[in-house]
Write a structure and sequence with these properties.
The structure holds two protein chains of two kinds. By secondary structure, chain A is mostly helical. Chain A has one domain: Four Helix Bundle (Hemerythrin (Met), subunit A). Chain A is built from five helices and no strands. In chain A, helix 1 runs antiparallel to helix 2, helix 1 packs antiparallel against helix 4 and helix 3 runs antiparallel to helix 4. Chain A is elongated. The relative contact order of chain A is 0.18. Chain B contains four helices and no strands. Helices cover 74% and strands 0% of the residues of chain B. The relative contact order of chain B is 0.17. By secondary structure, chain B is mainly alpha-helical. In chain B, helix 1 crosses helix 2, helix 1 packs antiparallel against helix 4 and helix 2 runs parallel beside helix 4. The chains are: A mainly alpha, B mainly alpha. At the A-B interface, helix 3 of A face helix 1, helix 2, helix 3 and helix 4 of B.
Chain lengths: 133, 148
Amino acid sequence: MEPNGANVTHLPLRRDAADGDLPLPVEELARAVDAIRRCLAEIASEPRYGAGFGRPDDTLLLLHISTVQQRLEKLSEIKVTTWPDVRWALHFSNARIRALTYMRAPEVAALSSALGGVRDLIVTRYPQTLQAC
Amino acid sequence: MTPAGPEPDGEGVPPPGCLPELREKLTRLSDLLEVFDTQPQALDQQPQHIHTEMVIPIYISMKTEVAQACGPLWKDRDRDDLWEKFQATAEKWPAYDAATSELKAIRDHGGTAVDALVRAENPRRHYISALDKFVKACSRTISYFFPT
């Protein structure tokens, strides 16, 4: 037999991942979306954040960031090895890590962009997370 | 050229217990490789998951349960070819692992990773290329001996 030959079929690629067996409740995603929404709203409400954050009077924003950080840490279970939609899991994991990285640097524009990217990935793929907020 | 063997009928080789999980991992990797084809840097953030939790377990399953199930029907030449493809992947891994570790360290310290990104390009390309060949060889073997 010649399994490495050309006259064989390839494994079918899965294109549509089922949403019914997610490794974590979709409510966890919704909570992250909600936390990001609140954080971005706080950033938008204070022009002074544009110069960076970390000052003593930035407590409210730092609290929001801390909440988002906790939510995103919980979403570390979204992995390419187990999540039903592997492509989405890849992009989401990268966006999540990027956002967590920017939380360590007081650069509001980059953080806003990274958080917006995470939020968009979630609500586009799982629109039910918007209703759950 | 070795003449082609008999058409697989799905009954000649008893499917090993690992087959469903093996198919799942191979399908996941095939999907990921399609992404890496246009966005290779998408692999940089989580290569450990892919190499240690997918690639190595696939190799172990192929080397043990699949090899045992296929027995002599799986020619030595074809087996060796598959092992060599895994070996190529494994050999490319350390350089790529080091490059992504450097990237992570720079980003964790808030630094600019432009130079490290450039240094990661070749190790990443070599690893993805070897991985693609390994996954395709595994998929062909599984499809041949255990047609759906």
